[in-house]
## 1
Amino acid sequence: MKASRYSTSRQKACNSCSTAKAKCNRKVGRCTRCAVKSLSYSYTQLPLSGGSPASTIGNADVGVYGSASPLPPNSTNTLSNPGNVLPSPECGISAATDPQSSTAESALVISDASPTDPTNPTDSSTETFTGNYAPRESRLEVPIRPPKKSEILDFSELELFSPINVDDISNRWLHPYIPVSGQKVKNYPPTITSLIYRILKSYVTVAVRGRAAPPFVHASQVMSTSTSPPLSTCLSLIRICENPLPGSEGVVADVLGREMNNLYEQYVAYDNVTQLAAFQAYLIYSMALFFRLGQISGPFLRQAMMNLQQLACSSGRAGLMCIAEQQHTRPKWEAWIVAEAKRRTLYVMYLFDSVLSTQDGLQTFLGTELQGLPAPRSKCLWRAQTRQEWEIVYNIYLADWLAEGLRIDELWPMPADLSEPGRLQRRNRVDTWLENVDEFGTMIYAVTSCTHG
């Protein structure tokens, strides 16, 4: 028993060096002595405890784990037990879409691309994981599941439309200077102004620190296979705002300003999805200038807001709502992602505009031009990781909302002529909406409820 207990630690040489009683450096692949003398290189792996015969490991088995010893059978492999690393899918719906797949395959697939062809598209069911988790080379490989055609994102055919007059968005900057009939002033209490300021600052801070994308950017937009250049450049470039050297804030601001000018000059030539990415990137740059670099006031930020509203108008012309949403049927996943991301970005832009207007001492007005747009949809829909998961959640959403979903204007003040049954119905609709919203929707409700009653 004693010999077998210490046999592994006493083996200091390969078989050839041990027979010759020569010193062995046990170099991976072949020790120096065996390489010089062209001797065969092998060693005897003795059992850790009695009961199994010794086995000889040759050259082909060396170097898999960076050493000549095989992985012990009871060792814990992180990739085969991803529950210790990655959280379970949101809303209790399994992210696996193939019931016949093995446990390891359904729990975590590191990459859906073929190992011999790295250009293959990745499976959208796992792209959220691959963007945030990179396995070490020394770990075991997880069996690769080929991508399913139904899960590959295709943004080429989007059936969208705009239920509002988007030209009113581009003219919003004129409202503090030129009165418009029917304008309603938003009298933000100091607490709400502070809430909006801190929430928007947190959105850009998590992006600057590389922790996550802002909540108006969908997870599919930041995957390596589908990230649009304006957005990918933005999320990389704003990292320079994290810890700028004292006195260098102006230089960093100039760098961001030049990139913003490039985006604004080129956005007309962009397609629908790239225009959305340009709109989001321009908003993130503007928020980084204000919240991270201390560009509190000045003509550049006011001009940036005017440009932002023009970008929002151009992106809105390509559609802010799915045709299927209007028909109360399930839309294409890709179309819904684009429409929801546009609406969320639009709402954040309006809140940021109110912060800048307050800073400049200007009045802010209720965005009546947005009346009819859907309110932010549920957390489970926004965070769904696969097409199948999203379709299941959307079917549940259609069952919960037999009529149209909640509109953003239903969070505004109730009309004075609204009947008591109508008021009760609206309250019930808002309560149903609140049951499933994410943190972004909760923030929107907090602002509108405290501001508009």
## 2
Amino acid sequence: MANPSPLRALADIISANVTILEDAYAKEGATFPSLDEPFKWAPIDTNPLLAEAKRLIAAAAGQLVATVRSPVETLQEYSPGMYLTVTLGTVVDTNVPDILRDAGSEGLHINAISAKNGVDPSYLARVLRFLATRHVFKEVSPDVFSNNRISSLLAKAKSLEEIRADPMSRYDGAALASFISAYADESLKATVHFSEFVQNPKRSDAAFNIAHQTEAKMWDWYEEPRNELRARRFAAAMKGGADRFPADIFINGIAIDCKNLQDSDVVVDVGGSVGAAVLSLWKLYPNLRYVVQDLEKQIVIAKEFWKDHAPDALVNGSVELQVYDFFTPQPVKGAAVYFHRVNMHNWPDHDAQRIMQIMREAANENSKVVLFDIIATHVCEDPVSELSTVRKKMPYPLLPNLGVAGAGIHTAMDVQMLTLFNGKERTEEEFRALGRASGWKLDKVIPGMLPALIYTAI
């Protein structure tokens, strides 16, 4: 039987999966959350069995809009996309979601918001109207705005009084607000030079360096005296980002090998921050020896982390904290496993290859490398994939990678890495090539929220 028209097929996908969602919520005696209400977490909201239905609805809705809308209107919406970033950053930096948090569904007039944050009411009205048009905030009545399901997540962890008393700490514990504020600050400024950089990459290390007139990498730039708030905000964002990944991801990626390791075999977490992933492994496999490596500042913090969570591990020597720069010779020779967590994407190919080569020089023939990283996917069908689970075929006529509902955040992260570091998110074939160029063979890919790529020495 012939496929229905793309329009009808997209509408059918939406209809069928809306039914799945509504039936599931009804079974729990609930209704699907309203966009008009502030976000309130409920267990069913993160039910993995319903995640697929939500992704299919979002993918089909996005593709339906792109299909039926005038291409001119679509380009008119996409081209000034920077204004979405800058207005989100503005409301976060001026505490608008925090001010509205206590206002409830009635909201506040722009004059009342202005009285609390000092921003001209006319500016507030235009910023909030722009965002409410895109379903961030709700305009309850003319010039009266309230938080909705999306904007409520922009509020910080601290009260307005605490924010005013200690502005330097205002982003602490607020990962999403921190990310958005940083996107609208150092990232947005760097994007101005994006086209310039990709046309002439020899001019500088990255667009970020052109924009901020520095030769330093972003994390070194954060250490400069004028960037204290940015550094603290970045730390809050990174902590929240790391917290997204359950410990099971790292346990499952390495435990396959841990079960076969002998007592006192060594597992090295390269660039491991405080060693939270190692803590999870140590609890399951205390007979192994672990080394957490990072720069001195992180290792100082790591010592306090381990004193609080597992002091015996440091005392008995089963866990060692080691100051190390992974562009220098690896001091741990012949480890059973060396692993990296979401840091290879910070580096262009020549640097990533050097990192892998340094591990190979320290490894023996039985050593393995495990990279936990995003795997970029093609928008089309990919017949080249050899190791990872074959990508599930999406319903006609959806994009194989589900568009913005699937690879949207990953493609955005890829461009972000290019902008800030000339780094990249790599496809499976690019990870395979990275291994070949540095003495490693990509043997296995464990799919998941954060895939594990397992290499053996060649």
